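User: For a benchmark we're assembling, each entry needs the component sequences followed by a predicted structure for the full assembly. Here are entry 17's components. Please fill in the structure.
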Amino acid sequence: MWAFRMICLLAAAAALFAQHGYNSADIENGGRLYIANCTVCHGPEGDQIPGIDLGHGKFRHGTSDEDLEQIILKGIPGTGMPSHDFTEQQAESIVAYLRSMATAGRGTLPGGNVARGKAIFEGKGECLKCHAVKGNGSRLGPDLSEIGLVRRTSQLEESLIDPNAEILPENRTVHLVTKSGEQITGRLLNVDTLSVLLLDDKEQLRYFPKSDLSSYSLVKDSPMPSYKGKLNNQELADVVSYMSSLKGVGN
Amino acid sequence: MRLRSYLTCAAGLVFAAGTLAAQVTFDRILNAVREPQNWLTYSGTVLSQRHSPLTQITPENVKDLQLAWVFQARSLEKFEATSLVVDGVLYTVQAPNDVVALDAASGRTYWVYSYSPSPKARPCCGRINRGVAVLGDRLFMGTIDARLLALDAKTGKLVWNVEVAKPESGYALTHAPLVVKDKVIVGTAGGEYGIRGFIAAYDVKTGKEVWRFHTIPEPGEPGHETWAGDSWMHGGGSVWVTGSYDSDLNLTYWGIGNPGPDWNGDARKGDNLYTDSVVALDADTGKLKWHFQFSPHDEFDYDSVQVPVLVDMEWQGRPRKVMLWANRNGYFYVLDRANGQFMLGKPFVKVTWATGLDERGRPMKAPTAASSPDGVLIYPGNQGGTNWYNSSYSPITGLFYIPSWVEYNTTYYKMPAEYHEGRTFGGAAMRQNVMRRGATGTRVEDADGYGAVRAIDPKSGAMKWEFKMSDVTDSGILTTASNLLFTGGREGYFFGLDARNGTPLWKATVGGNVAAGPMTYAVNGRQFVAVPAGSALFSFTLKQ
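Assistant: Structure for entry 17:
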């Protein structure tokens, strides 16, 4: 099968779940599909619609894996749940992800306060030095305007405490040295056999033929500092609450 | 050396042959090397070397190549077709199944034949097509709803349209047919749907089936014992690249795809003949003359869907009729094409599923390479060390060129598989160490698998040089008698390399995935090189 759909590499829970014995590859793939297709209505935690908690087995229609696959594929007539043009395998992987959600938990932090979190985010945390929210801030790091739609609180918490735990491919940093000695660090946008394209630390889009470079390397660690010890648990919880509230310009 | 002077002579005749308006007889197809201004079969000739005697474009002047024209397909599917050129007319396929006739020098369209496949069509891996075949004044195309069509090459009018298999059961036709004498030969895709594959020959005049060879033997046939229980009934054995033909032996050679379910062999104990094999069939009767199985009882999707490359070469002091084969399983093979005898086999990329080949070419499976629900990491990964991407052999350099996926692995997680008609029959989930992409679609990891052209000395299996790319590649390879090699990749470049050492000499930014083999032709004394990229076909020629 020459064009089997490619599955990402991010490390995930290796445990097996639920009726089908899903594996980590299913869960990773399902998680991507879930984030891309489901969070607008269901939220990253799966509990955005009252009475439904996808990650904790709380459904209005059907409970078995097969039921859920059919609902994902065909939708529920008369409700807001549309049909989807997924393959059966994709629908299965989304179910695998839903079944895995409970084990990730909701993080270890206490409840937070959105307003306090915003103040820390924009003040003491200096988050806008690298990130932007609704046009305010920097383009160097990932834009966080919709982060509450695509990342779970447990993931946000992890990113604050251990930014190296998971760096998405679109957020890789690259370091270049040109043959004339210029050193450039920036956000990698594209790389191929002959060239490298990036957004440099002055927010300039730059193109470099590899033949002009004396070195080119991916920066293994995230440029983001860990906030462990810099913010206390309550402050971290507040920042997580604030980020969870960021659900796009329309909200 | 005799071969070289013959080719030089043939190249000299090119332009004398000029504008033959005659029909494409099978004699012309057999001797296509004598009219290199044309590209009469999917792989250039029935020997499938993807090597052209044309020499106008050289390592010295390739830097002067420029765009002659672009044909924009009305299709967002991958453009996998290799075009044919017959006396100044280029025939290609706009995916899934529209045949297009263009003026090969200007790129302007003569006609388009539009075909609407049945909604029952469900090709596994894209609604694509790899090209047409020609004989007389007819073109032949297989369709994704498993039909075979004949068209009038002058008008694009349908001549006949016959059913090959049932699309609702997962059968599809994606490769370019092979014409042998008065028959057009095709095989069926569908290895992910539990089909029972076959190769069949049809009368070029009527479309009537003349013979059929099942790639999985039924009860009573030799080889049936290699399938446990009823597993043969849905055992796959698809065919989705074009075969080759040796007129002296009157044998046609075809690579056979994976067994089904792909990744879980529990229910199909045995070698599972003739999956992952090459079969040599009598071209008149379809009777099996010999077979060679590359990957017995495969659980890693190592389809042997490579075009058999037929070469006459000196081997240990005497002339031999050989077949060169870079297999998806990571090994490069040389076989005697008269009898299937194994002559040489060596890995051309990292291989961990086998520890080596025995003296008959049978792999010795690594004990650590058993498929498991807990996952097993295997090199080469699911796409293989190579895949259907067209290899090339140059009789000038004596090298065999392989589109390769290097240092590439997959972790397979075995799962249950149950057959339901027309549904995926796979038996695993998997993850792979390439293709992790940034927002732009280009691979961003450097630490693992990559694409390359690898040049192999077929006499030893040793690699002579490598051209590394950042991303992996689905592009075929073309070589010319002037020591040029053309190829592309997923990054959207089209490269001209020196076939002797891999030095990059020229490139064009074509802005899309090159997922087909380049080809070359000439019109009125001007040589062109054409390659699809994205959803367009580009043709290049020297600046005048």
